[in-house]
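For reproducibility, we list the full input for the adenosine-5'-diphosphate complex.
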Amino acid sequence: MIAVANQKGGVGKTTTSVNIAAALSMNGQRVLVVDLDPQGNASTALATEHRGDVPDVYQVLVDDLPLADIVKQVPEMPGLYCAPATIDLAGAEIELVSLVAREARLRRAFSAYSAELDYIIIDCPPSLGLLTVNALVAADEVMIPIQCEYYALEGLGQLLRNVDLIKAHLNPTLRLSTIVLTMYDGRTRLASQVAEEVRAHFGETVLNTVIPRSVRLSEAPSYGQSVMTYDPGSSGAMAYMDAAREIAHRALV
Ligand code: ADP
Ligand code: MG
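The corresponding predicted structure, in tokenized form, follows.
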């Protein structure tokens, strides 16, 4: 189970969660994406209903609804599943505060969920609040997307401290397994400088595959598609296929 986290918004968490998941499923893996962002962008990108009164992650976290009751098969993507988020989830951050075992609600929901899956990918919201804490307590691994831009590393220290705290107190087996560089623009010196700096600091945790800036990646979600079905030949599709292969290979070694 992989939590895709970075408290900065717009760094590529959702794009990475959805496309890595889709790529893994196209390679024959069974993958569930858990949308843990009240904005529901991952649900939208996976063409999974998340408006009105559809049962969602909020009800799992706050009302103890079984996960099996909310998980949907993604249309035309065999092996790919989505646990959607509705706007209700925005209230969870506050409502969780007064609940018993508030940091472990998602972990508990998964312990009662027996679907056979190869990967569970949790798309976290852009904050370090209780929703992200729930993801980090449930997960085995953290994946951090880093945008190849100014201030790329700003705020990362805080996220890493949170990961360490959760490891120390709530989830001893959690590890930062993967950093993925996103929105790389090969024409700028800045992008290559950021990439170099991140690699110098985090070494092999950083995927060799770098995700380029590509409009196809930003267009695909409005068609409810991953970039691999929207435009399989695009640079973004090929990069996420490569990234997924690297991740699958890492899991084996
Ligand atoms: P987050 O989930 O971290 O907030 P998103 O994945 O939603 O970030 O990405 C933020 C915006 O940037 C979205 O509009 C998305 O379509 C776009 N985007 C993400 N990755 C790329 C990329 N590699 N190239 C071009 N646009 C991208
Ligand atoms: Mg997002």
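The chain has a mean pLDDT of 96. The first helix runs from residue 13 to 26. Both points were considered when choosing residues for closer inspection.
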